[in-house]
Amino acid sequence: MSVSKETVLETLSRLEIPNGEGNIVSAGMVSDPFITVSDAGAKVMFSLSVPAEMAEALEPLRLTAQKAVENIPGVASAMAVMTAERKPGAGGGSGPAAVSPGAGPPSAGAMNPKATVAPPAAAPSSAAPASPQAGARGVPGVRHIIAVASGKGGVGKSTTAVNLALALKETGLSVGILDADIYGPSLPKLLGLNQKPEADGRILQPLVAYGLKAMSIGFLIAEDSPMIWRGPMVISALTQLLREVAWGTDDNPLDVLVVDMPPGTGDAQLTMAQQVPLTGAVIVSTPQDLSLIDARKGLNMFKKVSVPILGIVENMSYFICPSCGEQSNIFGHGGAKEEAERLDVPFLGGVPLHMDIRSLSDAGTPVVVERASGPHAAVYRGIASAIAPAFADEVGSGPKIVFE
């Protein structure tokens, strides 16, 4: 049986607001439901917008709404999150405040209504804790996680992440890649993947391309569908894509998971940095000053949450004219290297601006695979070699032989 938005809203309209002022749909509390369909059934996600001061009191209403949608025939699972609107001047300004299910941080079951809801947690301090990663919970079946990040969009971060993941795989590691950009997923295009992942219960099976295990919200939605979600839904979706995917097993774990972060320093970056034990972060920038300013912000964010900086990559570092062979520094040259030296972090290399990299990325055939013996693939392999020591403590050590 197909599940429509109209069916979901009609079901929710039966739920009255506790103060007796109508139902939650007519009161404008319910967002436009987002529905994905698989062989197992439909997954429905929606949010409830409530006054900030009533968020805790209305938590039972959120659970009731979630359960009501879950009971619709054809629905395999439902997820309701609460967003709280602060009044201007009340508690730090206006705008939506994220209220996760159970008022605690998102968990592996945040998008699964059958999961146990965490008890309310104390409000977080505005200052970052001294060591935010100390209590971070590892991802099942994954040894190491690295973030590929940028301070702004349009610098070639996703292309870098894919080719870096492929270059790491060539070193003998088992590698996966997670597209953490919920609003603008790039992985389906870059890897030429357009099918939907299968699910084993609540666990998604990653798609595989060129030996990489891959997961992206782009595998679950139409390419031209906008993600009109508030922060809590984004965090819940990101948490599920990270923790509810069969990346590996205890007996056969994934050596490295490369996370293609969204640009900037927002909720997704902070959630990843604080809730996952990152082995390190790779910062991607172009040489121009404007890009470097934003890259510096991203780098400092990771430092503040105790994530090691593996290094900086200068993308679009230079352009070689295919006709005359002359080098042109379209966006400047060497700025990222100078910034790395100034900040005392490794400079991992400069990737040229070249039509092969662009065209092969658009075709879903990354340059490391399609032009494996070319100079551009060699650049990405050099970057992979430079960060490989970060995984040496657990990966590739081999068995120990003991003579008695």
Verbal overview:
By secondary structure, this protein is α/β, with parallel strands linked by helices. Helix content is 27%, strand content 22%. It is built from 11 helices and 16 strands. It has helices at 5-12, 59-70, 157-170, 187-191, 231-243, 267-275, 289-304, 335-343, 355-362, 367-370, 375-387, and strands at residues 34-38, 41-51, 75-86, 95-99, 142-149, 175-179, 199-200, 203-204, 207-209, 212-216, 254-260, 280-285, 309-315, 319-320, 327-328, 347-351. The strands form 4 sheets. The chain has an 8-stranded mixed sheet with strand order 9-10-6-11-5-12-13-16, with helices on both faces. Strands 1-2-3-4 form a 4-stranded mixed sheet. The radius of gyration is 23 Å and the shape is elongated. Residues 85-132 and 395-404 have low confidence and may be disordered.
In short:
The protein has helices spanning 5-12, 59-70, 157-170, 187-191, 231-243, 267-275, 289-304, 335-343, 355-362, 367-370, 375-387; strands at 34-38, 41-51, 75-86, 95-99, 142-149, 175-179, 199-200, 203-204, 207-209, 212-216, 254-260, 280-285, 309-315, 319-320, 327-328, 347-351. By secondary structure, it is of the alpha/beta class. An eight-stranded mixed sheet has the order 9-10-6-11-5-12-13-16, sandwiched between helices.
Key structural traits:
404 residues; alpha/beta; eight-stranded mixed β-sheet; four-stranded mixed β-sheet; elongated; disordered C terminus
